[in-house]
Amino acid sequence: MYKTKGMEAAFEAMNLVPNRLEEIKYTVQKLFDEVRKGQVYIIINPAFPGWCKVGMAVDAEDRLKQYQTSSPYRDYELIATYDTSDRRKAEKFAHDLLEKKHERRGEWFYIQHPVATAILELPMREHL
Length: 128
Hints:
Elements: H1 2-5, H2 7-13, H3 18-34, E1 38-44, E2 51-57, H4 60-68, E3 77-84, H5 87-99, E4 104-105, E5 108-110, H6 113-127
Antiparallel strand pairs: 1-2, 1-3, 2-5, 4-5
Helix pairs in contact: 5-6
C-alpha cells in the first residue's frame, strides 16, 4: 500500500492529513523559535581556507552534526562556543564585532579562526 500511494498512505496510517502535518510543523518551529537560550559558535572547514562561520544554535554540537552530513569528508570543526541566555542577540553582537574589519558573506567571515576567537572571547563573555 505505501509503495503505491507514497507519502499520502503514510500520512493516512498516522492519521495525519497533509494540512494537519503543516500545522504541526508550524507549531514545532514556533516553539523552537521561542527558545532564547543557546550558543554562539565558530565553525571552520578546510575546504574554505581563511573563512569562519559564526552562527547560533540551541546546541552547537548538534549543529555541527548537521553540517557534517553535507560534507563527504565530515571535516567541519567546531572551534569555539559561547553559552548565552539570548542566542539571537549574542549572534548579532558577534557579527557586528567581526564585520567592522573583516569581509562577511552571510554568517561566514574571512578571518583566521584564532583571530576570530581572540576578537570574540572577552566581549562575548562580558556580553553574555
